[in-house]
């Protein structure tokens, strides 16, 4: 069955059901897929060696339940999560919406996940030995003043299993979370995380790099401030970007007024512009992982041209299907 036919069938289901069905089918069909990530000229970033530049973005496999199956699609790296210290159901349904005419999604999932302990068990059970990022967040009911404690809890538990960590402070679907991007809050959080990273590196005898995932909705002044703090705290990478609360490009479409983060084609240009602005400020001192609106191989190439070292996919897979992974690998330079 072609992806076009499969997508038509899946789009007859509500989006969350389609998501679960797709992952269940992938688990069943995974043994029929070619194993592993295609070598496309290994890339060095964060002190890690990536077999290719194309990764899976966080959010698709929140609990790390489908790692082995997803690895067979050809990704050079996978990122699972976002995971929180305690299990939480997320926001009430419906909370995921398709905007097919715009090749977009809106979600207000709210970090629904089974908790960090379940994710740890799932990662331990997986056979995958490639590069695995684990994306960490805070529980919805943890006051923002104590957010660092949630990130540190997750960090300690996943550190032995992760190739790298991503600190998610940019989801629009957890109340006040984006306040952590404000300069003073971010300064305190990064200081606490870097101190813990040093302790864990000594304890485990290995250094696990740490990335920060930021929003596309920052002003130029805010973006400059974030970049300065990334450099000051020697953060290992930045993931640009999360979903947007803007609605440019989807005005008047069904579901366009739903609250939540917009992803897909309407985010492509803005996310790439954030990559470009970060690259101008960071000047190669910190690698950038470009994510947001990679719907075609050309979108991935534009993110690299703007200054990204690696790219990630999610919504593009919903509309273009698994073939997008290998299309991007072939299109990107070694």
What does this structure look like?
The protein is of the alpha/beta class and 334 residues long. It has a single domain (3-331), classed as Aldolase class I (TIM Barrel, Alpha-Beta Barrel). 37% of the residues lie in helices and 17% in strands. It has eleven helices and 13 strands. The protein has helices spanning 3-10, 15-29, 67-71, 116-125, 147-158, 183-204, 220-232, 268-282, 297-306, 315-320, 323-331; strands at 43-45, 48-50, 54-56, 77-83, 96-99, 104-107, 131-136, 164-168, 210-214, 237-240, 261-264, 288-291, 310-313. The strands form three sheets. It has an eight-stranded parallel β-barrel with strand order 3-4-7-8-9-10-12-13, surrounded by four helices. Strands 5-6-11 form a three-stranded antiparallel sheet. A two-stranded antiparallel sheet has the order 1-2. α5 (147-158) packs parallel to α6 (183-204). The radius of gyration is 18 Å and the shape is globular. 50% of the residues are buried.
> In terms of per-residue confidence, which ranges show pLDDT below 50 for 5 or more consecutive residues?
none
Q: Any idea what the radius of gyration is?
A: 18 Å
Largest sheet: 8 strands, parallel, barrel
The CATH class label is Alpha Beta
What is the straight-line distance between the termini?
A: 31 Å
Could you tell me the CATH topology label: TIM Barrel
What's the domain count?
A: 1
Got a strand count? 13
Bin the strand percentage: 15-25%
Order of helices and strands: HHEEEHEEEHEHEHEHEEHEHEHH
**Oligomeric state of the chains in view:** single chain
- What is the architecture at the second tier of CATH? Alpha-Beta Barrel
Class by SSE composition: alpha/beta
What order do the strands of the largest sheet run in, or round the barrel if closed? 3-4-7-8-9-10-12-13
**Individual helix count:** 11
CATH 4th-level superfamily: Aldolase class I
Shape, please?
Answer: globular
Helix fraction by DSSP (H/I, runs of at least 4): 25-40%
Quote the average pLDDT. 95
